[in-house]
User: Fold these one by one.
Assistant:
Number 1:
Amino acid sequence: MAGPSRRNAAITLMQINTANRNVAMHMRLAKSACSECPIRHRAVCAECDSDELAVLEQIKSYLTVPKGGSIAVAGERLDYLSSVVSGCASISKTLVDGRRQMVGLLLPSDFIGRPGRSTLSFDVDAVSEVTLCRFERRAFEGIVKSSPNVARRLLTMTLDELDIARDWQVLLGRLTARERVAHFLLSLVRRDSGEVDDGLFVGSANLTLPLSRELIADYLGLTIETTSRQFTALRRDGLIEIPGSRQVFVPDLARLSLETMDDDGGPIA
Amino acid sequence: MAGPSRRNAAITLMQINTANRNVAMHMRLAKSACSECPIRHRAVCAECDSDELAVLEQIKSYLTVPKGGSIAVAGERLDYLSSVVSGCASISKTLVDGRRQMVGLLLPSDFIGRPGRSTLSFDVDAVSEVTLCRFERRAFEGIVKSSPNVARRLLTMTLDELDIARDWQVLLGRLTARERVAHFLLSLVRRDSGEVDDGLFVGSANLTLPLSRELIADYLGLTIETTSRQFTALRRDGLIEIPGSRQVFVPDLARLSLETMDDDGGPIA
DNA sequence: GGCCCGCCTTGACCTGGATCAATCGGGTCC
DNA sequence: GGACCCGATTGATCCAGGTCAAGGCGGGCC
């Protein structure tokens, strides 16, 4: 690398400010029943019994954040903890000179916030329109105390996130640009396909990318240009097809997974 | 970067095998009372009342792993969870071609293992001689269920580790070699000094590095050579003195912290 | 239709850090 | 004391990915 990117600091900051202003545009939605909730069995409430669920139901509220809007700002007070019900959000840090690194990608059922602390150390932004199921922090902390099923689920989810963050560290520290892009595409495949049978990449897959090239670059610790060139290179080598800039077809997942040096789901097992 | 390092794959693997053999050299130590334990108020047991502590005391055992020894191997069964009582251990992943990335550095009071799962996805190795306070997994999982103070403490510690991992992602994804080394030194200062008053780097500090240049390189996602050159460059610029290869004196912490682009504890706040 | 505006792609060139290869100490063993 | 070893340093060179700078392309708007 020829020094991490410092370009577009002004543009970057402008985008962030725009995002902050969008906070005012949040819309309130009517509650819907937990029993109907699409993330009922994967979110922080997954292991709740009906009593516990009733308590959560009482304190929850919904919030929709528009695409590009800010969900939380590093260092600022955050009085709600929430689950992503739909949409996609990013966790990232922007350095003072504009360099940015994404450190988390939040999809439906992922949890935002840190019980026991009122600030986060990272920015959380809506990549697409995001609907949140929110809990006022104090109330939620009480529930964590009284409901072991919520506490246990939260611990499991946090441990999973820690594993993801550490795999991501390996990607950022040691993989080449091509390996990073291949790994990114396969991680999307894994998430799409129920994220259970990881390690088995067989057949083909059609992907809709949730991120722009710029955000993919932020995710992978690369520049937009390098990211774009790697997509082109993978296409030229017949590993992927790109019918649209947000569409990727992988004709042979096993062959693509070889590009990550992995023999069972990534060099990053 | 000119492509992540792929050198020394054979040597690396040999070292790992040597480490594995060391498992057989583990020594058993007599128990000592929890009330006398140096990590009593920082480890997973920190919030236990005397009843809970008594239960833990009953199932705990000590284990000393020699320097270079293996504490856990990625993917292999691990039937004990443990706290580091003394010494220093690393969490890392080695790719099939020998590239290695450290993703965690364990110091006294840090916890090893994942309740609810019998394997880890990373290797854990003793950087120096390490003494562990171990709990058989099944028994410990029972305690987590019955003792909310242990469960809560475990959640807090895991959330802290997640923040550390994400800051580390920013370092690996976006900082220059010089910034990485400066950041590494300052993170050691912070850990040494009670790790409370972070953000305030004033005065000078004398450091004993817990890691060799090779392991520092694994930590920072660099090669040994680049790491060594950055130490030399910081010395040449008067930011540090190097009385011995494991000794670093920082005459002006504030000045060194400017090298990380940070104005209150790192660009990585 | 034609213009504009955001993305995305592509090309030419540069450079930070990797690679390859000595060399330098300090420690240990005979 | 000398030979050896192993980690650390330093030098010379290379190259992956960053930087700078044009285009290309699809979608919305008049």
Number 2:
Amino acid sequence: MNSIDWDQALRGLGKKSTPQRKALLTALALQDKPASVEDIFVEVRDHHKTSLSTVYRNLEWLFAQGLINKQGFPGEKARYSLKREHHEHTLVCIDCQKIVAITGCPLDSYAAEVGRRENFVVVDHRMEMYGYCQQCSHTRGRV
Amino acid sequence: MNSIDWDQALRGLGKKSTPQRKALLTALALQDKPASVEDIFVEVRDHHKTSLSTVYRNLEWLFAQGLINKQGFPGEKARYSLKREHHEHTLVCIDCQKIVAITGCPLDSYAAEVGRRENFVVVDHRMEMYGYCQQCSHTRGRV
DNA sequence: ATAAGAATAGGAATGATTTGCATTTATTAT
DNA sequence: ATAATAAATGCAAATCATTCCTATTCTTAT
């Protein structure tokens, strides 16, 4: 929302607070759905001189910190989104790419069970659902 | 298991039954976990002259047909696996990349519920769990 | 204000995947 | 069986997202 928050957040993580980083975080906060690197780059560049490599580097770092989500198939462009307070997954329309956030993930207890069974310390999971949104179902003659 | 099955399957789908395709399907059937294109290529090449592009082309086609799974993050190499009778997901070790197949997915009824709530026709989902396998947990001093 | 280290911009490099095309092969009709 | 023909293959070149390199510019602590 404002750059002061980002300043503090970045310093707290031992990183310098650069205009590019703040603009990047602001750009992410503006998105209502996972955005491609290109989208984010364009958004950041509207406010500050920047380069694609800077955007990539910072996104990757934010992802490693667990502050943002990264999703997509291999061979596709990655899409990033800020992590919300509540653990969230997405529902993606196969036709129009519309993305809806879904809440209420049933996987945590399952993760614990699987970890026990397989002798893993399960620390995270990724889940995405695919289908057709209402409009696209109609267009394609689906119910 | 045998090439006769693949012959029939391929013809039924309107495709020519080539040695490369049969070897590819056999290679996939041999894997007990999702394999990289490179792995599959090497396996196929043990039995027939082939090329990476042929492997790529056929894997992509099989995936489009819904006969195999494709998984991995963007920026990672894709991994493919034959679809089994039982819906399957994977558990991946963050350190050593060991992959374990896990069965018993609790997401189907959840998918139906989400679809109803969001007015989507949910047709598929992807889910992968991440953690540390027993060895790597020890190495890293984790419990 | 300055020094020291971190971060950036820009471009080159990488590497998985895709594509173009000439050749080979599996199918179908003869 | 053979020839015709459309599809599939192999190889090399192209693509394209992402990563890497490094000289220069900023941030921050002093």
